[in-house]
Design brief:
Elements lengths: L1 H4 L2 H11 L2 H8 L5 H22 L10 H22 L5 H5 L5 H11 L7 H20 L6 H28 L1 H23 L9 H29 L1 H5 L5 H13 L5 H20 L3
Helix pairs in contact: 2-11, 3-11, 3-13, 4-5, 4-10, 4-11, 5-9, 5-10, 7-9, 8-14, 9-10, 9-11, 10-11
Protein backbone atom coordinates (compact mmCIF):
# COMPACT_ATOMS: atom_id res chain seq x y z
CA UNK A 1 0.00 0.00 0.00
CA UNK A 2 2.90 2.37 0.66
CA UNK A 3 3.94 2.01 -2.99
CA UNK A 4 0.43 3.02 -4.07
CA UNK A 5 0.03 5.91 -1.64
CA UNK A 6 3.61 7.05 -2.20
CA UNK A 7 3.16 7.55 -5.92
CA UNK A 8 5.37 4.66 -7.00
CA UNK A 9 2.56 2.70 -8.67
CA UNK A 10 1.35 5.62 -10.79
CA UNK A 11 4.95 6.51 -11.55
CA UNK A 12 5.58 2.97 -12.76
CA UNK A 13 2.49 3.06 -14.99
CA UNK A 14 3.83 6.29 -16.49
CA UNK A 15 7.19 4.64 -17.15
CA UNK A 16 5.49 1.70 -18.87
CA UNK A 17 3.63 4.08 -21.17
CA UNK A 18 6.77 6.09 -21.91
CA UNK A 19 8.65 2.88 -22.72
CA UNK A 20 6.80 2.72 -26.01
CA UNK A 21 7.66 6.28 -27.00
CA UNK A 22 10.97 5.76 -28.80
CA UNK A 23 9.94 2.60 -30.69
CA UNK A 24 6.76 4.41 -31.73
CA UNK A 25 8.73 7.51 -32.73
CA UNK A 26 11.13 5.36 -34.73
CA UNK A 27 8.19 3.87 -36.63
CA UNK A 28 6.63 7.31 -37.18
CA UNK A 29 9.74 9.12 -38.50
CA UNK A 30 10.06 6.51 -41.23
CA UNK A 31 7.32 8.45 -43.06
CA UNK A 32 6.75 11.69 -41.10
CA UNK A 33 9.04 14.72 -40.94
CA UNK A 34 10.36 15.13 -37.35
CA UNK A 35 9.15 18.74 -37.20
CA UNK A 36 5.64 17.76 -38.30
CA UNK A 37 5.58 14.76 -35.96
CA UNK A 38 6.62 16.89 -32.98
CA UNK A 39 4.13 19.67 -33.68
CA UNK A 40 1.19 17.46 -34.70
CA UNK A 41 1.45 15.21 -31.66
CA UNK A 42 1.44 18.30 -29.42
CA UNK A 43 -1.60 19.77 -31.19
CA UNK A 44 -3.58 16.55 -30.85
CA UNK A 45 -2.64 16.12 -27.18
CA UNK A 46 -3.38 19.81 -26.51
CA UNK A 47 -6.86 19.39 -27.99
CA UNK A 48 -7.55 16.44 -25.71
CA UNK A 49 -6.06 18.29 -22.75
CA UNK A 50 -8.23 21.34 -23.43
CA UNK A 51 -11.30 19.12 -23.43
CA UNK A 52 -10.30 17.72 -20.04
CA UNK A 53 -9.76 21.21 -18.64
CA UNK A 54 -13.16 22.39 -19.85
CA UNK A 55 -15.01 19.30 -18.67
CA UNK A 56 -13.26 19.46 -15.30
CA UNK A 57 -13.86 23.22 -15.03
CA UNK A 58 -10.27 23.81 -14.04
CA UNK A 59 -9.14 27.27 -13.06
CA UNK A 60 -6.44 28.97 -15.06
CA UNK A 61 -2.89 28.81 -13.69
CA UNK A 62 -1.60 31.88 -11.91
CA UNK A 63 0.72 34.26 -13.74
CA UNK A 64 3.50 33.10 -11.43
CA UNK A 65 3.07 29.57 -12.83
CA UNK A 66 3.55 30.53 -16.48
CA UNK A 67 7.35 30.51 -16.34
CA UNK A 68 7.41 26.99 -14.90
CA UNK A 69 4.82 25.87 -17.44
CA UNK A 70 6.99 27.30 -20.22
CA UNK A 71 10.00 25.35 -18.92
CA UNK A 72 7.89 22.20 -18.75
CA UNK A 73 6.64 22.72 -22.30
CA UNK A 74 10.14 23.44 -23.60
CA UNK A 75 11.43 20.21 -22.04
CA UNK A 76 8.74 17.59 -22.60
CA UNK A 77 6.49 19.04 -25.33
CA UNK A 78 9.09 20.54 -27.68
CA UNK A 79 12.62 19.54 -26.71
CA UNK A 80 12.51 15.82 -26.01
CA UNK A 81 10.08 14.84 -28.80
CA UNK A 82 11.92 16.90 -31.44
CA UNK A 83 15.45 15.92 -30.46
CA UNK A 84 14.63 12.22 -30.26
CA UNK A 85 12.76 12.32 -33.58
CA UNK A 86 15.80 13.90 -35.24
CA UNK A 87 18.12 11.32 -33.69
CA UNK A 88 15.91 8.40 -34.70
CA UNK A 89 16.22 9.37 -38.34
CA UNK A 90 19.81 8.14 -38.18
CA UNK A 91 19.95 5.35 -35.60
CA UNK A 92 17.91 2.40 -34.42
CA UNK A 93 15.61 2.67 -31.45
CA UNK A 94 17.82 0.19 -29.55
CA UNK A 95 20.77 2.55 -29.72
CA UNK A 96 18.74 5.59 -28.67
CA UNK A 97 16.81 3.82 -25.91
CA UNK A 98 19.85 3.13 -23.74
CA UNK A 99 20.40 6.87 -23.31
CA UNK A 100 17.19 6.92 -21.28
CA UNK A 101 19.15 5.30 -18.46
CA UNK A 102 20.66 8.72 -17.80
CA UNK A 103 17.24 10.30 -17.23
CA UNK A 104 17.07 9.56 -13.47
CA UNK A 105 20.34 11.43 -12.89
CA UNK A 106 19.11 14.44 -14.84
CA UNK A 107 15.73 14.36 -13.12
CA UNK A 108 17.35 14.11 -9.68
CA UNK A 109 19.75 16.95 -10.45
CA UNK A 110 16.92 19.25 -11.52
CA UNK A 111 14.85 18.13 -8.52
CA UNK A 112 17.58 19.66 -6.36
CA UNK A 113 18.07 22.75 -8.52
CA UNK A 114 14.41 23.51 -9.31
CA UNK A 115 12.34 21.40 -6.91
CA UNK A 116 14.13 22.19 -3.66
CA UNK A 117 14.60 18.54 -2.69
CA UNK A 118 17.39 17.37 -0.40
CA UNK A 119 18.95 13.97 -0.89
CA UNK A 120 21.26 11.76 1.15
CA UNK A 121 24.72 11.02 -0.32
CA UNK A 122 23.83 7.33 -0.60
CA UNK A 123 21.04 8.26 -3.01
CA UNK A 124 23.56 9.73 -5.43
CA UNK A 125 25.70 6.61 -5.14
CA UNK A 126 22.83 4.38 -6.26
CA UNK A 127 21.81 6.86 -8.96
CA UNK A 128 25.34 7.11 -10.38
CA UNK A 129 25.85 3.33 -10.29
CA UNK A 130 22.52 2.78 -12.03
CA UNK A 131 23.33 5.34 -14.69
CA UNK A 132 26.80 3.86 -15.15
CA UNK A 133 25.32 0.40 -15.65
CA UNK A 134 23.07 1.62 -18.42
CA UNK A 135 25.78 3.77 -19.99
CA UNK A 136 28.18 0.82 -19.91
CA UNK A 137 25.59 -1.33 -21.61
CA UNK A 138 25.20 1.32 -24.30
CA UNK A 139 28.94 1.41 -24.94
CA UNK A 140 29.32 -2.36 -25.01
CA UNK A 141 26.38 -2.84 -27.35
CA UNK A 142 26.91 0.01 -29.76
CA UNK A 143 24.50 -0.21 -32.67
CA UNK A 144 26.17 2.22 -35.01
CA UNK A 145 25.25 5.60 -33.60
CA UNK A 146 26.74 8.78 -34.99
CA UNK A 147 28.20 11.69 -33.05
CA UNK A 148 25.26 13.85 -34.09
CA UNK A 149 22.64 11.34 -33.00
CA UNK A 150 24.39 10.73 -29.68
CA UNK A 151 24.56 14.47 -28.98
CA UNK A 152 20.88 14.82 -29.88
CA UNK A 153 19.93 12.02 -27.48
CA UNK A 154 22.10 13.47 -24.71
CA UNK A 155 20.46 16.88 -25.15
CA UNK A 156 17.05 15.22 -25.21
CA UNK A 157 17.70 13.49 -21.90
CA UNK A 158 18.85 16.73 -20.26
CA UNK A 159 15.83 18.81 -21.33
CA UNK A 160 13.49 15.94 -20.47
CA UNK A 161 14.89 15.75 -16.94
CA UNK A 162 14.30 19.47 -16.57
CA UNK A 163 10.74 19.17 -17.86
CA UNK A 164 9.99 16.25 -15.55
CA UNK A 165 11.25 18.05 -12.45
CA UNK A 166 9.60 21.37 -13.29
CA UNK A 167 6.28 19.75 -14.17
CA UNK A 168 6.30 17.64 -11.02
CA UNK A 169 6.89 20.75 -8.90
CA UNK A 170 3.82 22.38 -10.48
CA UNK A 171 1.78 19.20 -10.01
CA UNK A 172 1.80 19.75 -6.27
CA UNK A 173 -0.30 22.87 -6.85
CA UNK A 174 -2.17 22.29 -10.12
CA UNK A 175 -2.49 18.51 -10.47
CA UNK A 176 -0.79 16.08 -12.87
CA UNK A 177 -3.08 16.12 -15.91
CA UNK A 178 -3.68 19.84 -15.46
CA UNK A 179 0.05 20.61 -15.72
CA UNK A 180 0.64 18.72 -18.95
CA UNK A 181 -2.62 20.06 -20.42
CA UNK A 182 -1.68 23.68 -19.71
CA UNK A 183 1.88 23.11 -20.94
CA UNK A 184 0.53 21.68 -24.20
CA UNK A 185 -1.80 24.64 -24.67
CA UNK A 186 1.06 27.04 -23.98
CA UNK A 187 3.06 25.43 -26.78
CA UNK A 188 0.37 25.89 -29.45
CA UNK A 189 1.58 29.30 -30.73
CA UNK A 190 4.78 27.51 -31.78
CA UNK A 191 3.36 24.15 -32.74
CA UNK A 192 0.51 25.26 -35.02
CA UNK A 193 2.73 27.24 -37.44
CA UNK A 194 5.33 24.45 -37.35
CA UNK A 195 2.73 21.87 -38.33
CA UNK A 196 1.32 24.14 -41.05
CA UNK A 197 4.68 24.60 -42.78
CA UNK A 198 5.83 20.98 -42.47
CA UNK A 199 2.62 19.10 -43.27
CA UNK A 200 3.22 16.31 -45.83
CA UNK A 201 1.98 17.09 -49.36
CA UNK A 202 0.04 13.83 -49.25
CA UNK A 203 -0.82 11.24 -46.62
CA UNK A 204 -1.45 8.44 -49.09
CA UNK A 205 2.10 7.10 -48.80
CA UNK A 206 2.14 6.95 -44.99
CA UNK A 207 2.47 3.34 -43.81
CA UNK A 208 0.24 1.73 -41.22
CA UNK A 209 3.14 1.35 -38.78
CA UNK A 210 3.93 5.06 -39.08
CA UNK A 211 0.30 5.96 -38.36
CA UNK A 212 0.28 3.66 -35.34
CA UNK A 213 3.44 5.25 -34.00
CA UNK A 214 1.98 8.71 -34.64
CA UNK A 215 -1.21 7.91 -32.71
CA UNK A 216 0.73 6.38 -29.81
CA UNK A 217 3.07 9.33 -29.26
CA UNK A 218 0.21 11.81 -29.69
CA UNK A 219 -2.19 10.27 -27.18
CA UNK A 220 -0.20 8.06 -24.81
CA UNK A 221 3.32 9.53 -24.78
CA UNK A 222 2.20 13.15 -24.92
CA UNK A 223 -0.76 13.11 -22.51
CA UNK A 224 -1.86 9.92 -20.76
CA UNK A 225 1.64 8.92 -19.66
CA UNK A 226 2.23 12.32 -18.07
CA UNK A 227 -0.99 12.11 -16.06
CA UNK A 228 0.37 9.06 -14.24
CA UNK A 229 4.01 10.20 -14.24
CA UNK A 230 3.53 13.66 -12.74
CA UNK A 231 1.19 12.26 -10.10
CA UNK A 232 3.85 9.75 -9.08
CA UNK A 233 6.64 12.33 -8.99
CA UNK A 234 4.59 14.76 -6.92
CA UNK A 235 3.49 12.11 -4.39
CA UNK A 236 6.70 10.12 -4.02
CA UNK A 237 9.35 12.76 -4.64
CA UNK A 238 10.83 13.83 -7.96
CA UNK A 239 14.28 12.35 -7.40
CA UNK A 240 13.08 9.15 -5.69
CA UNK A 241 10.30 8.10 -8.08
CA UNK A 242 12.42 9.36 -10.95
CA UNK A 243 14.73 6.38 -10.41
CA UNK A 244 12.00 4.18 -11.92
CA UNK A 245 13.25 5.50 -15.25
CA UNK A 246 16.21 3.14 -14.92
CA UNK A 247 13.99 0.23 -15.97
CA UNK A 248 12.41 2.16 -18.85
CA UNK A 249 15.21 1.42 -21.38
CA UNK A 250 14.75 -2.31 -20.92
CA UNK A 251 10.98 -2.18 -21.23
CA UNK A 252 11.49 -0.16 -24.39
CA UNK A 253 14.06 -2.62 -25.73
CA UNK A 254 11.56 -5.41 -25.17
CA UNK A 255 9.00 -3.51 -27.21
CA UNK A 256 11.60 -2.77 -29.88
CA UNK A 257 12.36 -6.47 -30.09
CA UNK A 258 8.68 -7.36 -30.33
CA UNK A 259 7.57 -4.63 -32.72
CA UNK A 260 10.73 -3.75 -34.64
CA UNK A 261 12.36 -7.20 -34.51
CA UNK A 262 15.54 -6.07 -32.76
CA UNK A 263 17.55 -8.63 -30.79
CA UNK A 264 17.56 -8.76 -26.97
CA UNK A 265 20.69 -10.16 -25.30
CA UNK A 266 21.16 -11.95 -21.99
CA UNK A 267 23.37 -9.06 -20.86
CA UNK A 268 20.35 -6.78 -21.11
CA UNK A 269 18.52 -8.91 -18.54
CA UNK A 270 21.51 -8.80 -16.16
CA UNK A 271 21.76 -5.03 -16.44
CA UNK A 272 18.01 -4.80 -15.87
CA UNK A 273 18.42 -6.62 -12.55
CA UNK A 274 21.20 -4.23 -11.56
CA UNK A 275 19.07 -1.25 -12.54
CA UNK A 276 16.12 -2.45 -10.49
CA UNK A 277 18.43 -2.94 -7.50
CA UNK A 278 19.58 0.65 -7.87
CA UNK A 279 15.97 1.85 -7.99
CA UNK A 280 15.23 0.09 -4.70
CA UNK A 281 18.40 1.46 -3.11
CA UNK A 282 17.71 4.99 -4.33
CA UNK A 283 14.19 4.85 -2.89
CA UNK A 284 15.57 3.77 0.49
CA UNK A 285 17.90 6.76 0.76
CA UNK A 286 15.76 9.47 -0.84
CA UNK A 287 14.77 12.25 1.54
CA UNK A 288 12.14 14.79 0.61
Amino acid sequence: MNWIKGGWLTGFIGVMIFAGSLPATRAAVADFDPLFLTSARAIIAATLGAMLLVIGRQRRPALSDLFSLAITAAGVVVGFPLLTALALQQVSSAHSIVFLGLLPLCTAAFAVLRGGERLQPAFWLFAIVGGALVAGYALSNDSGGTMRSDLLMTAAVIVCGLGYAEGAKLTRRLGGWQVISWALLLSLPVMIPMAWFTVPPTFSQISTSAWMGFVYVSVFSMLIGFIFWYHGLAKGGIAAVGQLQLVQPFMALGLASLLLHESVSAMMLLITLGAVTCVIGAKRFAVR
